[in-house]
Amino acid sequence: ATQNKLIGIRDPYGIRPLCIGRLEDGSIVLASESCALDSVGAVLIRDINAGEIVIIDENGIEAINYNEQSHKSPCAFEHIYFARPDSVIDGLDVYKSRYETGVKLWEQQKVEADIVIGVPDSGLPAAQGYAIASGIPFVTGLVKNKYI
């Protein structure tokens, strides 16, 4: 923030996410993931576009496209690994995209197996999608120790 302004900038390829939210009192907030907005009681307004600057002050939100050649090319690992599953990034539900990845994997790589096991935490939705699509039972085989 500078003086009475909050400024957000997303890179020209939109590699990392950035979104705008509104608190109950009307205040505008920025976050890398929509789940951060949820935790402070804000509602998602929209994602900041690739190559966009937003300037937020008492007059509202001013959006500036600072790079005419910008095109969205986000990091796939946001949906595969980095992002929390309760986030929505660029209009895509992270949990659903992970789950659908498992379904697509079954469609493309069918195997005979006794069980499907996911790797916590980010691999669990894909494993569940694979299990349901295949009819192979999903089993918790790995547990993440939350204390170390």
UniProtKB/TrEMBL annotation:
<dbReference type="InterPro" id="IPR029055">
    <property type="entry name" value="Ntn_hydrolases_N"/>
</dbReference>
<protein>
    <submittedName>
        <fullName>Amidophosphoribosyltransferase</fullName>
    </submittedName>
</protein>
<dbReference type="InterPro" id="IPR017932">
    <property type="entry name" value="GATase_2_dom"/>
</dbReference>
<feature type="domain" description="Glutamine amidotransferase type-2">
    <location>
        <begin position="1"/>
        <end position="59"/>
    </location>
</feature>
<keyword id="KW-0315">Glutamine amidotransferase</keyword>
<dbReference type="GO" id="GO:0016757">
    <property type="term" value="F:glycosyltransferase activity"/>
</dbReference>
<dbReference type="InterPro" id="IPR000836">
    <property type="entry name" value="PRTase_dom"/>
</dbReference>
<keyword id="KW-0808">Transferase</keyword>
<keyword id="KW-0328">Glycosyltransferase</keyword>
<dbReference type="InterPro" id="IPR029057">
    <property type="entry name" value="PRTase-like"/>
</dbReference>
